[in-house]
Amino acid sequence: MTISLETAASTNASSVVSSHFINGEWTDAGGPTFPVHNPLNGELVGEAAAGGSAEARAAVEAAAAAFPAWANLAPGARQLLFLKAADIVERRTEELVELMAVEGGASRAFSSFQIRLSAAMLRQAAGWGYLPAGDVLRSDVPGRTATVTRKPLGVVAGFTPWNGAFYLAWRTFLLPMAFGNTTVIKPSELAPRSAGLVHAEILEEAGFPAGTFNVVTHAPGEAPAISDVFFESPAVRCINFTGSDRTARILGAQAGRALKRMVLELGGFNPVLILDDADVEESIRAVTFGAFLHQGQVCMNSRKVYVHSSLHDEFVAGLKARVETLKIGDPRDPAVIIGPLINDGAVEQIAARVQDALDRGAALVTGGTADGRLYPPTILSHVPADAICSTGADETFGPLLVIEAFDDAEEAFRASQNTPFGLSASIMTRNRARGLDLAARFDTGIIHINAPTMASEASLPVGGVKDSGWGRSGYYAIEDFTEVRLTTVSREPGRYPF
Ligand code: NAD
To answer: Can you give the CATH number for the domain in which 281 is found?
Structure first.
């Protein structure tokens, strides 16, 4: 349940105090809370319960108690719940657009994209309960039959990020739930409603059984109190983490000690190769979208473009012209494409990386000067290889794109692979066979030919390799959130060596 915040300066729909959602109840009303601010102007947009280990334990217990019934629920009953939730998401579109704007700085273009993907994923997952649950295998032993069935794991505990929070939170719990697991979510403290709490409202209204989905929120800096419980609880059989590689390394060490299965959806350094036979206009459109959707704060945003030198000048001039038409400002204005960065630290990171490149001799094509949290789409060319934004060693999480000209496609390809990340990449070419041959050699979880590095669809398996993590979305998530059970039946007496 959410309560209107009487004292909030703004009376918009997002000014609410949110409780934890545990075992089908909104708990802890009147307990400690922490404020959530609009990244654009620092306005208070809500408060959320400041929880810790006690709430996390209660949530895990509720999820564990709900597991057997949820795992055995008839596929038709589960299907109706998911379909109903999809309808509620669409009905609440306007309110969700507002929420994502004031909590995360998301433009209407980005929030609408997330709402569409979320409803699509719910509707697809609704049917998975009817897909084959296993296989019958042949045995060399006379009279023996072997069957393999997919079984849910138990409780899956999820961490959600603040960026793309609405869709990514669905991805974090909906995929495990569709395969029969129950869940506990710890949303990002920067966007607790769009990263989990609003989902609890939707599932509650849809009629999901108590305990199947639980949300515990925490004040900034207090995440470990909750995550420690996840790692320590035997009932939690899998940790589903979406966030930075930095946090994943901390949690991964804990998972190692606890021998806990972990799914990791991390960042990327997603290159675009524009070959000499590419359609320049199409490349400009794809790169503008791929690099600057959500101000470059999406894991799959393009970070570096390698463009053939014969197309370089035309591409850069066209990209600059297109990017400079993107309206910057308050994302509640439907015409705005570029909203604020999430916090001052994000602005400082981009500014420092731009300055580092300029100090080393890079050329500024456009952008480069912040107005508060508003940082314009920024393009750098002639960037020395050792500039931080160009090396590929670290993700630059904001609206900064590096462009590099090449003469030899093979060299450009090799340079594009010189990064610890392996999430997404794009090749722009009119020769699809050439594109496919090159694509086959990319060390990434995703490679698009003639599309942006950000080309998500709910049905497609998104995920990374190397430091971008492992695990896949869509139906392929069955590999992450179920385990294979082997059952054999023998009809004849055994033949044993002793
Ligand atoms: P983050 O790593 O700071 O936070 C992610 C989650 O981990 C949050 O819930 C946060 O509260 C929690 N967390 C942070 N420190 C913790 C700690 N010490 N102990 C326990 N929990 C902790 O990431 P973010 O800034 O929220 O998100 C942006 C990052 O996520 C970027 O690197 C982006 O590329 C990545 N990301 C990846 C995908 C993907 O699908 N591959 C999608 C979205 C975001």
So the answer is: 3.40.309.10
